[in-house]
Amino acid sequence: MAAPLAVASAQLQERHITGQVVEAASGAPVSEAAVQVRGRGFVIRTDSRGQFSLRVAMGAAVLVVRRPGFREVEATVPSDSVRIRIEITPSVRNMDEVVVTGHASGMTRRHLASSVTTVGADDLTRASTVSIEHALQGKASGVQISQRTGAPGGGNTVRIRGSSTILGNSNPLYVVDGVIASDARVSNGQNIVSRAGGRAIASVTQDSPVNRIADLDPNEIETIEILRGSSAAAIYGSKASNGVVLITTRRGSAGAPRYTLSSGIGTSSLAYRNGQRRFRSLEDAIEAFGPTAAQYYDSTVFIDYEDLAYGEHPVNADIAMNVSGGSDQTRYFLSASGRKERGIVRNTFANKFAMRANLDQRLGSRTELQLNLAALRTANDRGLFGNDNNGSSVAYTLGWTPSFLDLRQRADGTWPDHPWYPSNPLQTIDLVQVEEGVWRGMMSTRMSSQLLQTGAHEFRFVGLGGVDFSSTRDEIYSPPALQYEPLDGMAGTASTSENRAFEGTLNLNFVHVWSGPALTLTSQLGTQYERSAGSELRVSGENLRGGLIAAGAGTVPPLVQDVRRLVHDFGTFAQMEVLWADRVLVTAGVRADRSSANAEEARFFYYPKASASYRVTGPLRGVNELKLRLAYGETGNRPGYGDKFTSLAAPVIGGATGFLPATFRPASNLRPERQQEIETGVDALLFSSRVVADLTVFRRDISNMLVNRTPAPSTGYATEGVNGADMRTWGVETSIMTTPVLTESVSWTSRLSFGLNRGKVTRLPVPSFDLGSPGGVQARIEVGKPPTQIIGLDTLPEPGRKIITAVLGDGNPRWTGGWSNEVRWRDLSLYALIDHQEGGLLQSGTFGQYLAARNWRDYDVALDDGRKLGDVLASARVSRIATQDATYTKLRELSVSYELPRVLLTRLSLDRAQRAQVRLSGRNLIWWTKFRGGDPEAENFGGGGPPAPPAVQRNRELGAYPSSRSFWLTLVLDF
Amino acid sequence: MRHHRFFAVGALLSLCACEAVTVPNFNAPGIEPLTTAPDAASANAAAVGLLQLLRGATNEYALRLGILGREVVQLTSNETRNVTEMLEEPLSPNRIFIDFGWSSSYRRLLAGTILLGFLDRVPDYTPQQREAVRGFAKTLMAMALIDQLRVRDTFGIVLDVDPTGQSLGEFVSREEGYDRARTLLDEGKTHLAAAGGAFPFSLHTGFTGFNTPQTFLLFNRAIVARMEVYRGNWQSALDALNESFLSTAATTRTALDAGVYNFFAAGEALNGLFDGVPAAIVAVPTFLADAERRADGSADLRASSKAQATDVTLSLRGISSNLKVTRYANNTAPVPVIRNEELILLRAEAYLGLGDRAAAIQDLNFVRVNSGGLEPLPDYTGDLVTQILYNRAYSLFYEYGHRWFDARRYGRLASLPKVLSTHRLFPLVPVPSAECNARGQQPRGCIQVDGI
Q: Which of A145, A520, A799, A918 is 20 to 30 A (C-alpha) from A969?
């Protein structure tokens, strides 16, 4: 009986208020702002005139107004008032957003003492993409993101503030909702076919693997925060030296169910064409391909092999649905999405499906519980691309295929053999399967409980735990019919791999907050336990019986690979933050870390941090806020599993096992590399918050760096580890966000980001050494020089044409920057992002093949002295010619979106829709680059470790899957 | 108070750092069997390990030196450095193919040194078994030195490997290198003589006929003969040959092929010298044409059985050859380490060196007739060195890089067919740059070799 009574009395005690939300400076009405009564669940939205009406309880009411792009505002409606006008101010970067500063604490950006980039949901879904790193390109200053290969499914390298290691892990740490997430690069096992890394099933350096963060669905993400060393220091200690990427997924807010449906259809096409040489005479053809060219040459035939191999215009689709809502007690966010993308190469694709449920539950008045569950499925076939040692890679083969040669499938279904190369690329595309499927589950839970609250004191417990588990299956099949297959005497090659990865996190934290009149003191103490484990189980099959697809059909003894890893990390963390008068923030903290991966498992390594910021409001005319900040932090880069072991090689000969000392001798006292980072900067809010600018200067001193030097081979060892190289990196980052125009009907927002960094090796415990294969392109590690310095062979000018080893340049770009602009006119919005990299060097293997085959498009260009350009380049050493400036400018994202007017929605019977948007978008649409051979972002060794560590060996394009431009038409409905 | 208790317990829980976890190496056995308390099983395995390194070096010598000696060319379109670095350009320490077995030789010496170092501590070996392993290891270690003396010649080599890795061995002259190899082989002989009737470990089928200490000694002496011929100690060579397995009792192919071989099998290691298509490795274009003719006008059997023209022509950077190498029938065919045919030719050489032309001609004829199907040399008055080099080139084609080394030691490098006139012939090979970089004072071999 109580419930109806309560409802009745509530109705009796309510009153009706109306209001309007306007932009503070211009007075323009703001539509689509969410208005909520504090303490009440439901949310209503302003109409196109910015107006709303709602019922509130008797007495004064507090309204909360939120709208993307504006600062959150609370307004009180006095008990005697029924109409209110609420002004909100735009903020291109929301100064009130909370940025993580500790395991159980955060701080508003307004006070933050170090540089943290936040990218929000809107910016992640501008143009559909498979992997979130694509959506970050050009948006975070000082963060270099390269697409290692154009193959569907992703594969990216993220470098935050340049290289901070030589041989160690160079990838940032990914953390999703507080739980460490695997970004493992796991080889698919195609090496058994390509032999790029010798006869082994897998080569993580050569198989251009996807990095597993690509499994995440951008539609589920609320924000991505990028922490640099100084801010990540005490939080993630020995795993933070490459920066930390914190991903927060979306959560429900109280209110009626709110649905979003986003559905898109798209296509893609080849973005860069190498073209081919047009052989003008039989003599030219014979010069290039030998006397047998006479059998094939026909001056009237010109077959465009890039059209045949990379000419697909696939139909791609993605769909994402979510619903969120709930009550004060329980809130939910549920989502499901699917994406199907086919490549520009036939038989290649990347599909993914994701489901997520994020729940928030209040348990009594003091405790909140969160539960996040996600299931992810990814599948792809990326074709046979990348480096090879048997002539099977499609991109290489194209270089060796002249336009007059017809390799197309015959009418009877058979394929002609390539007379001058071991494979027919069209046959390879048609028959090879390089399939990968991943199932992944992520689960995390967070409990936050207020243990005590008395006066100025508050004690809280924040506990967080979760797991990230993935299971990957790879099936590689290269059937016997392929031209290259019988060449090794074993026709037909297959490999099957089952790989597992597990990351588990458990954090227990206590937070104490003391709030005085002008002073807030936040202290926390906690422990973190992390377990990282994985296994790779692979088997190969060669000389396949009956051409069967399964590796078990092999008729020669199979290779079997069973590789496992397990690391336990334990850390303790303490931190204190002091905020005084909303002006000064001082933070000090330390983390103590130990790991089973270190030589001394029980030893703790300490990672302190300290920072301070001072904020002034309105110091000068036109300056709303100015903040000076200074931060210092130490981070580590702990060794990988197994790096510390001295192992025994156990080859088998004549059926007997032999023992030999392994060729690698590890550092005797292997420990984490240490990075000390200091940064200082200024943040400013100018001209009524129309301009938000920040500038940061940093310096990193990295010590105890692990180097795998090559000892004198007469020691009997090929490599040995040494902990003890030093490096210094400095850099500048800035970003400026402005809103030059903001009127009722037109707004223009512009963002500029810029970053540069310079590194220098300052100490080496070993002589200078080179990484990579001699005679090709190598990184030379040398005191006083950047760790990314590239050397290669060069030919001195004639006469003599002596060949020398020369420094070709620095592989690290001089600077990178992004510039985006968004113009809204009424319901129409135009957005463009330009991404630029200045400098850097990249060796183009693909171009090298075209040149070596005398098949390069510009081969016949005549020089002043009558010689052909191709003859001149081909006779010079490849490492100089093929190693080119990798400067590029790309139109990274472009979108035009239109908010369908109410009238149209009604006509379309979409009355219930709150909002409907149609968006036409594209990615990587236009490139400007002088680089020849393919995508200047490509990195063959981006996945690997020694002898091609990605930190310094980024500069190799070796037969990469060509990049594409993509187009999407998307409809977004909110109701 | 309740909350305070909760807090205190929680704080204690979270701060008590649980025991540090030790995680073992799941993926590779540790070095311990070779360092602490090795037993007979691990000592046996360490001895077998030396055979693996012997096998691993076949490509370095047969193929790499085969290219320098114009036996074969490697025409791989996606790795043109097989031509540019091996034939066209000067050799310098920092080139990719500069190793020529250097690393593998010293790894063999390291493994051998470790093995010899702990033999006395192996509890379950008999004294005879210790001697057997010593004799075996020293023989293989001496071979590692000889392999590098062939390649680096007057640049000299390093003799000693420190098993702790703390110090670097000194470079010594070629002469000191040969002296050390001879010492090791002679010590090996002494050990083998005291080794009883069997090795404690089993040797693979490549050692059939040489798998007891007594028969292994025949192999040891064959290696002595080879190195003594290399340095022109003709009488020592002849003495060693007399103690070796040299035999002219039978004239069959089997008798000529008797000897020690490297073993290959699918699942272990494949014979990388085999190229069935061919996809990369072909004989130099003049290999068949330069062969002597038999009475019926056909080519020397040693040429026609080891390479044949096919309709697959490989071309790269101006080199074209359609001569498929048929020396090895498949990818598990054994590769000779040393065999009777070589011993007979070594004896011919030793006789010639001692001035006994008739005996030299007799041995040459044995090989010419029985291996090549050629007419015997008549009362030959011509240059016998030319005959020796020809017969060694065709008898021992693509086995161990003999042709290059033979031409070099007789100063007849220029007689090798260059293939293209712009190509180079190298008398010796520089020391790898990693070796140079690790040393303050640069060894003599840290220079570019321009060749001729």
A: A145
pLDDT digits (tens, 9 = 90+) for B196-231: 999 999 999 999 999 999 999 999 999 999 999 999
B19 vs B27, more confident: B27
Share of chain A above pLDDT 70, in %: 94
Nearest chain A residue (CA) to B112: A660
H or E stretch at A114: none
The angle that helices B384-395 and B357-370 make with each other, rounded to 10 degrees, is: 30
DSSP 8-state symbol, B60:
I
Strand A116-120 and strand A221-227: pairing? Answer: antiparallel
Residues in chain A with CB shorter than 8 Å from the CB of B60 are none
* Three-state SS letters, A849-904: HHHHCCCCCCCCCECCCCCEHHHHHHHCCHHHHCEEECCEEEEEEEEEEEECCHHH
Between A420 and A912, name the one with better pLDDT. A420
Nearest by CB to A712, which of B99, B313, B435?
B435
CB A743 within 8 A of CB A28: yes
Evaluate if residue A395 carries a pLDDT over 90: yes
Among A467, A463, A596, CA closest to A527:
A463
Q: What is the pLDDT of residues A172-215, one digit of tens each?
A: 999 999 899 998 888 899 999 998 888 888 887 778 888 889 89
Give the per-residue SS3 of A34-65: EEEECCCCCEEECCCCCEEEEEEECCCEEEEE
Q: Which of B263, B274, B369 is nearest to B327 (CA)?
A: B274
For chain B, the first-to-last Cα distance in angstroms comes to 94
Answer whether B310's CB lies under 8 Å from B283's CB.
Answer: no
Nearest Cα residue in chain A from B265: A654
Under DSSP, the state recorded for B63 is I
Judge whether residue A444 has pLDDT over 70: yes
Label residue A935 by pLDDT band (50, 70, 90). Answer: very high
Is the pLDDT assigned to residue A6 strictly greater than 50?
no
Chain A CB contacts of B26 under 8 Å are 563-566, 642
- Give the one of B23, B85, B103 whose C-beta lies nearest to A567's C-beta: B23
Least Cα distance to A967 among A459, A341, A251 occurs for A341
CB contact under 8 A, A716 and B110: yes
Residue A676, beta-bridge partner list: A634, A701
Please give the mean pLDDT across all residues of chain A. 87
Q: Which of A647, A659, A853 sits opposite B46 (nearest CB)?
A: A659
Question: Tens of pLDDT along A737-768?
Answer: 898 887 777 889 899 999 999 999 999 988 78
Q: Is the pLDDT of residue A810 over 60?
A: yes
Q: Compute the distance between CA of residue A225 and CA of residue A120 in angstroms, rounded to an integer.
A: 9
CA–CA dist A881, A873 (Å, integer): 7
Instruction: Give the whole-number percent of chain B exceeding pLDDT 70.
Output: 96
Task: Say yes or no for a CB contact (<8 Å) between A570 and B17.
Answer: yes
Chain A CB contacts of B50 under 8 Å are 658
- DSSP H helices in B20-59: 32-35, 40-56, 58
Given a cut of 80, whether residue A606 has pLDDT beyond it is yes
Rounded Cα–Cα distance for residues B429 and B441 (Å): 19
Choose among A388, A572, A655: nearest Cβ to B78: A388
Residue A404 · residue A302 · CB < 8 Å:
yes
CA A278 – CA A274 distance, rounded (Å): 13
**B25:A647 CB<8 A:** yes
Q: Measured between alpha carbons, how far is A942 from A211 in angstroms, rounded to an integer?
A: 10
Please answer yes or no on whether B315 and A556 come within 8 Å at the CB atom.
Answer: no
Contact B110 A661 (CB under 8 A): yes
Render pLDDT for B148-181 as a digit per residue (tens, 0 to 9): 999 999 999 999 999 887 789 999 999 999 999 9
